[in-house]
Design brief:
Elements (H helix, E strand, L loop, with lengths): L2 H30 L5 H36 L5 H32 L17 H8 L3 H22 L5
Length: 165
Amino acid sequence: MDLARILFWLHVSAAFAFVLAHGVSVFVSLRLRDERDPARLGALLDLSLFAVRIATLMLILVTLTGILATFVGGLWGHPWIWASLGILVVLWAWMSIRGVRYFDQVRHALGKRGAYDRKKDSDPTPNPGQLETLLASSRPVELTAVGLIGLAAIVWLMIAKPFSP
């Protein structure tokens, strides 16, 4: 098996693992809207954080193997590669800003530390009013829609390879 095939296999496998792990957070975010029990909310948020850490590692592997495969295949001159990479960067930024911030706000309103909080920081004070507002938010639907559209666009670019020279 040559290096290009190994990289392709790793790239696709990591992409599937990313989608699998990140899917946990997608479904948790949609489930949060109907949950009000603080213990269950905390468990769902902990599960999501665990899954996001795995998804992040897989996304790094997807990115690295994709970049290496592009070098090995001499594909840097193909605009679909750049479009895919651009969409990935935009999605990563969007989800980091809109998604992680939302989950951290929910954690804080529940009285838990967020993903970016330091270990030496004290636990935030629970805020039931803010928690109710956040749980009623349409942010999970927004994040799901943006993620699905972005993922579909990247898959389409990789399959159709438009704009190829």
